[in-house]
Write a structure and sequence with these properties.
Elements: E1 3-10, H1 14-21, H2 24-29, E2 37-41, E3 52-59, E4 62-74, E5 78-85, E6 90-100, E7 103-113, H3 117-147, H4 152-155
Antiparallel strand pairs: 1-7, 2-3, 3-4, 4-5, 5-6, 6-7
Length: 159
């Protein structure tokens, strides 16, 4: 069962980082390579407790649908999105936030299981873990860039 853990320091307040992390529009801005779109559930704005969103994206040349739900929510410290339907056997993505002297330490913990038993485990080792890590690193790069600039106001109403 693969586990991807990332730590991203951001020079911005914890509340801003937390809210940007649950912004549908920011998610879309960070996934240009996959042509990702929100097609059902909450398709704009901020995701909150119990909300679901269905994403349509192209991965490995194949268009896929993935629905996730916010299953834990404690603003501004943490939230979890868990797959409800999609290509994985299961996944949980914990988003954790801690204020520090320079702003915020954002931690991602992406825990997943691929389908197809032994074949899925082989795909994890050969391709999928590296691929998912790269997607998360890019998402965090975009989030940090936006949070540390004035652009965050484009994504958070009332900013």
């Amino acid at each position: 069962m693969p586990l991807i853990e990332l730590v991203t320091p951001i020079r911005a307040p914890i509340e801003r980082c937390f809210d940007l992390s649950r912004s549908v529009e920011l998610h879309l801005a960070s996934t240009g390579e996959t042509g990702e779109r929100a097609v059902a559930g909450v398709v704009r704005g901020l995701l909150g407790p119990g909300d679901e969103v269905t994403w349509r994206a192209r991965h490995f040349g194949v268009w896929q649908l993935l629905t996730s739900r916010i299953t834990q929510f404690e603003r501004p410290r943490r939230f979890r999105d868990s797959m409800v339907r999609g290509a994985f056997a299961r996944f949980d993505h914990d988003h954790l936030f801690e204020a520090d002297a320079d702003g915020t330490i954002m931690r991602d913990r992406f825990d997943f299981t691929s389908p197809l038993g032994p074949l899925g485990r082989l795909a994890d080792v050969l391709v999928l873990t590296r691929y998912m890590r790269a997607l998360l690193v890019e998402r965090n790069r975009v989030l940090r860039e936006i949070a540390e600039s004035d652009r965050w106001r484009e994504f958070l109403a009332g900013g």
